[in-house]
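Why do we bother with holo predictions? Because pocket geometry can differ from the apo form. Keep that in mind while you read this record for zinc ion.
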Amino acid sequence: MITILPGRFPAWFTWCSSSHPSFLSHWSLSFWISSSVWPLLSSWSLCRSRVPMSVCVRVCSCVSVSLRVIPCLLLTATAHAATFTAGYAERDITPQAPMPMWGYGARHALLAQSAADPLTARVIVLEAGGIKLAIAGLDLGRAPTFRSLDRIKSLIQEKAGVAHLMICGSHTHHGPVVELLDEPGLGQGTFDAAVKYVTQLEDAIAAAIIEAADKAVPAKLGWGAAEVTLNRNRQKKDEPKPRDPELAVLRFDTLDGQPIVLLVNFAAHPILQDIRDLRWTCEWPGYMIKAINEQLGAPCVFVQGAAGDMSPNPAGERTIQAFGAEVAAEAVKIARQITPQAPAQPGLQVVEDTFDFKTRLDLQNSLIRATFKQMFFPEILAMLQEIPGDTIHPRLITVVLNGQLALVGGSGEFFSAHARRLKAESPAERTLFFGYCNGHQMYFPTREAIDQGGYGTEPSVSWVEPGAGEYMIDTALNHLRALHAAS
Ligand SMILES: [Zn+2]
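The structure, written out:
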């Protein structure tokens, strides 16, 4: 039991933030590079040499946690009122013009011409002890770029006092590319609609957050979870295969018991829609939300988990509608068993980290860049702008809500064993892991998975050095333990 006093850590209890995104993916690129180009590149020694983690990994904040937490406690223990509020809003983020799709290299620059389903940004804004946190679930393949996140953060801080963000892509493989830039060769003049869309996306997300903050009302919170069989490991060839079976639900109600919003957290790739279908779709998470809306009369935000090695495992038909309904049925069962309560000690603690990891590929190398251009399309190199030199900068956000609930977000495709360990070792009453959160730095396999090989473990799609995922989870656990010990 964590017993953190209300509002102990103000908005400035936040460290480092910097930048990077990346896209690239999936089957075709990985397979092609692995089978043909990668051996060649490796033989030419273009891959970065391995450096011990202790030497090559620099973390902005975790090394000083023990020094910084105590002063914060002393200075702000009585600074904020004991309030807890929650608000919800959403915006349509469906592209209104043809533009390239995110998710499969094999599609190259083929343009989506229409929408099978609308794409939506759904937002919860929480205020606890005077600090505001926005949690956004997007019908997109990834979270926005660091550049976009910085602009969104500036808008919502200025207009709604929201200091912290967890913006997460559902990882649908039928959403738009969001990395292109208004610069020659990186989108300008070739994909102007996609460049313009990025600004529209930032505005829409910021508007939803500002509206949700404005609509926030005193709230009760409860949570529940169940182990389900709706996902499977797609990477490991032999047993036992790691898996995170947990389907978790947060339920936010008004003080008189009316639903404000639900949050559903589960790990499974949204890859059921046919790659050849060049239309936007929210994939199975969107249909899960639709079914929950219909059954509970409540809005719902979906946050993808550590799905790096998790595929959907439908019991029934392999369609986005049927699988969405399957997940919704389990989520509704959990939600109905939850009895939300007003938190006894509202409070919000947030620690943000940015890491500097060496890249496994030399992403500045002209041959590798030419390969990416060929496999996708030339302008996609815009994503490498957030990887200056030979370092990559994943982000981590660690949140403790009301002294009880831990939310940890990582900017990429974490393998499920990372989330399992985080949840098992966390001192919080309940811990959720959000993948695809606050940026996108590709796959974070475990060291064990890298040793075994398989999809998501190769340097072509996992750019961070081996051990990066473990290091980030260790960092989150250190933060959680420090906050717990200080309470
Ligand atoms: Zn993926």
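The chain has one domain: 27-486.
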